[in-house]
């Protein structure tokens, strides 16, 4: 083993975990020491693809690494992350960081006690559009976000709030430096037993309001955010990795004209940016852009949204039970 390289492992090499392994394997300053998955065939296939070793017991992998990406189902996040932190291993933990706030608090306390890196995988924070909009922000007044996705079987173990909305919650919390005053929500299950479409209106104490709409039963993929602030309107397109900034300037006719500028770095790979930051955080012992505390904060708001939606759904339970089941309709 090269002592100058960070020895990294990936626990859970399903759809997303496989990409983690591929990115690490391509880094010159990293040694992909192994991948672990309860599915032996999948672990062996990814290990062969990435030129590393396969494990079915992640604890065996922990003997070989300095740090790991944890990309297992959310219900196992706390158990696996706790095992890693107890052994002094830095972790990148996929979002949502845990199922409960108590689990998140336990991980944060242990990581801080042992001075370990606990980074949460809120990938959109590394989207070049999000990076480009940061210097353009100045006292946002109103934020509108739409994150719509075509239906996929993957990710349906959690509702649309933990699957999609938590991305925008995390981004907006990083933009608005103010406590939250109130949250108003609505949502419903449509195809699965869990909430598939939802809206949350978050009002901050400084007067800013954020309106977030998410759906995983759309006919198209949409990932956009609009930010209104004094003197400027910002349109963020996460898919195109681009920000359009619009302000008014005085025209030659005496009437104001729109002044439009575009910002972004379309060629950058979002996952690679996130993983490279994690490696540098491990190497330099620095705090992550999305720390465990920030991951916990986003989870807290997401769980509040879920709780409020569940309370509201009691009012139209008779509508949900009218069909008798969930799923796609078989046309005659």
Summarize the structure.
With 332 residues, this protein is α/β, with parallel strands linked by helices.
Describe the overall structure.
It comes from Candidatus Electronema aureum. GO terms for molecular function: nucleotide binding. The protein has 332 residues and is of the alpha/beta class. The chain has two domains: 6-122 and 271-291, NAD(P)-binding Rossmann-like Domain (Rossmann fold), CATH 3.40.50.720; 125-268 and 300-322, Dihydrodipicolinate Reductase, domain 2, CATH 3.30.360.10. The chain is 35% helix and 27% strand.
Annotate the secondary structure layout.
Elements (H helix, E strand, L loop, with lengths): L5 E6 L3 H11 L4 E7 L3 H11 L3 E2 L2 H4 L5 E4 L6 H10 L3 E5 L6 H14 L3 E4 L6 H6 L8 E7 L11 H16 L4 E9 L8 E8 L4 E7 L6 E8 L2 E6 L4 E9 L5 E9 L5 H15 L7 H22 L3 H7 L9
Parallel strand pairs: 1-2, 1-4, 2-3, 4-5, 5-6, 7-10
Antiparallel strand pairs: 7-11, 8-9, 9-10, 11-12, 12-13, 13-14
Descriptive tags:
single chain, 332 residues, alpha/beta, Rossmann fold, Dihydrodipicolinate Reductase, domain 2, 2 domains, eight-stranded mixed sheet, 27% strand, globular, disordered C terminus, NAD(P)-bd_dom_sf, Dehydrogenase, nucleotide binding
């Amino acid at each position: 083993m090269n002592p100058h390289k960070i020895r990294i492992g990936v626990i859970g090499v399903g759809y997303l975990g496989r990409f983690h392994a591929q990115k690490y394997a391509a880094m010159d300053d990293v040694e992909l020491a192994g991948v672990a998955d309860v599915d032996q065939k999948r672990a062996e296939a990814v290990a062969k693809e990435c030129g590393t070793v396969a494990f079915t017991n992640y604890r065996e992998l922990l003997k070989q690494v300095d740090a790991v990406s944890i990309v297992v189902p959310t219900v196992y996040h706390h158990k696996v992350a706790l095992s890693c932190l107890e052994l002094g291993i830095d972790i990148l933990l996929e979002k949502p960081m845990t199922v409960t706030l108590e689990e998140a608090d336990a991980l944060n306390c242990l990581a801080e006690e042992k001075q370990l890196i606990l980074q949460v995988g809120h990938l959109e924070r590394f989207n070049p559009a999000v990076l480009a909009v940061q210097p353009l922000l100045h006292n946002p007044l109103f934020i509108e976000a739409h994150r719509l996705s075509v239906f996929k079987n993957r990710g349906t173990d959690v509702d649309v709030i933990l699957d999609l909305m938590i991305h925008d919650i995390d981004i907006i919390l990083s933009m608005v430096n103010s406590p939250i005053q109130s949250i108003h929500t609505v949502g419903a299950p449509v195809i699965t037993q869990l909430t598939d479409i939802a809206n949350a209106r978050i009002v901050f104490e400084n007067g800013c309001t954020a309106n977030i709409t998410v759906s995983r039963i759309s006919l198209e993929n949409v990932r956009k955010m609009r930010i209104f602030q004094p003197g400027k309107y910002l349109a963020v397109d996460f898919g195109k990795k681009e920000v359009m900034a619009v302000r008014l300037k005085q025209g030659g006719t005496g009437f104001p004209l729109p002044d439009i500028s575009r910002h972004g770095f379309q060629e950058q790979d979002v996952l690679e940016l996130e993983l490279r930051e994690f490696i540098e955080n491990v190497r330099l012992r620095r705090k992550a852009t999305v720390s465990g505390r920030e991951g916990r904060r986003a989870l807290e708001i997401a769980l509040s949204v879920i709780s409020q939606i569940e309370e509201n759904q009691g009012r139209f339970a008779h509508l949900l039970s009218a069909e008798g089941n969930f799923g796609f309709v078989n046309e005659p």
